[in-house]
Design brief:
The protein has 165 residues and is of the alpha+beta class. The protein contains 6 helices and 10 strands, in the order αβαβββαβαβαββαββ. Helix content is 30%, strand content 30%. The radius of gyration is 15 Å and the shape is globular.
């Protein structure tokens, strides 16, 4: 399973940088709303991670890992504008899994692949406590948004759309 090596890489990164974090074991779940309830926090404190295909022109396609608050949607128009792209859409599961090195529902808000550009909404990095699945369906991680921004080094841009109801 690709997520296991990704999980180990994340924990190694956090431990080697003496970053404070908490592991939370729970029933296997990859849906943001459901796993937030299992972890016992508001959905707005979760990091929703989506792998996008961004077509700049007919020959150039980039892949972006968009990280938005769990109660919001990614604003595809904002991504299109940010990259001056002609098309933005969600990646197929196989491509997302290959680039994120995790199965859907367990994608981290970190990119360990240079072909996957990381963009996070400012509301994500501003969270005192940020929750996300840790490349596993049965384990999550909590850390501060500031520590996340320092370690992951995302491009911080307003990419979250309205609340998803």
């Amino acid at each position: 399973m690709p997520g296991n090596g990704t999980y180990e890489r994340l924990i190694s990164l956090l431990d080697s940088t003496a970053t404070a974090y908490e592991l939370i074991d729970h029933e296997p779940e990859g849906t943001t709303e459901t796993v937030s309830a299992l972890r016992g926090h508001p959905v707005s404190e979760a990091a929703k991670c989506l792998v996008l295909m961004v077509k700049i022109d007919r020959r150039v396609t980039r892949h972006v890992l968009a990280v938005v608050p769990g109660d919001r949607r990614v604003d595809l128009d904002a991504i299109r504008t940010l990259f001056a792209a002609r098309y933005v859409g969600f990646c197929d599961a196989a491509t997302a899994e290959r680039l994120a090195r995790a199965v859907p529902g367990t994608v981290l808000p970190f990119s360990f692949d240079p072909a996957l550009e990381l963009v996070a909404d400012p509301d994500v990095v501003a969270r005192p406590c940020l929750y996300f699945n840790a490349a596993r369906l049965d384990r999550s991680l909590a850390m501060s948004g500031a520590d996340y921004a320092r370690l992951a080094e995302p491009r911080v841009e307003r990419i979250a759309g309205p609340r998803s109801d």
